[in-house]
Amino acid sequence: MLLAAGNLAAQGPESLESMEREALRQFLESNIAASSSFDDRFDAEVWLVDMSARLARLLPDTQARLELLRQIHAAATRSALSPELVLAVIEVESHFDRFAVSRAGAQGLMQVMPFWKNEIGRPNDNLTDNLTNLDYGCRILQFYLRREDGVLARALAAYNGSSGKRVYSDKVERAWRERWRTNDLDWRE
């Protein structure tokens, strides 16, 4: 794949973007699925109580808050992401508003661009549905994290469409440090 990327880079940015888009489309298509994310009931309760208290200021309804936290944990775990990182991304992207729409047209909690529905052959998916949005957003972030060799700042910038800049990744890191951190994440450059 790196050799192909090198050849396409010589052809121009449009070809490289097209190859990356196809790789991400294939990755999403093969990885959106459901599973349980907690290994143990005690771990689930501890995490849910802790995160629920942190999220209460933004989502006052306890049942809705706990359901959303379960969904976030499951989607993050399926994508090999830190659930706390996903919480920070959601805070920055939509401030936990499932109906948020950006100026560019990105939708839902993780601000997923609607063209991805057609790209992966699921045009009827509803990006304001939390489960759908979280699956798309987490898998897209997982893809960029792998592509960027685990470097969070670069992966987050790619996720946001601001590659080469630190503004977005710095916002996510700040949200993570101030509100969601439970364990260390490698924020190295």
Helices and strands in order:
Elements (H helix, E strand, L loop, with lengths): L1 H10 L1 H19 L9 H15 L6 H17 L4 H12 L20 H5 L10 H18 L4 H9 L6 H14 L9
Characterization of this structure:
Keywords: Lyase. GO terms for molecular function: lyase activity. The chain has 189 residues and is mainly alpha-helical. It has a domain at 56-180: Lysozyme. The protein contains 9 helices and no strands. It has helices at residues 2-11, 13-31, 41-55, 62-78, 83-94, 115-119, 130-147, 152-160, 167-180. Helix 5 (83-94) crosses helix 9 and helix 8 (152-160) crosses helix 9 (167-180). The longest helix has 19 residues, at 13-31. The chain is globular and about 50 Å long. The two termini are 23 Å apart. The relative contact order is 0.12.
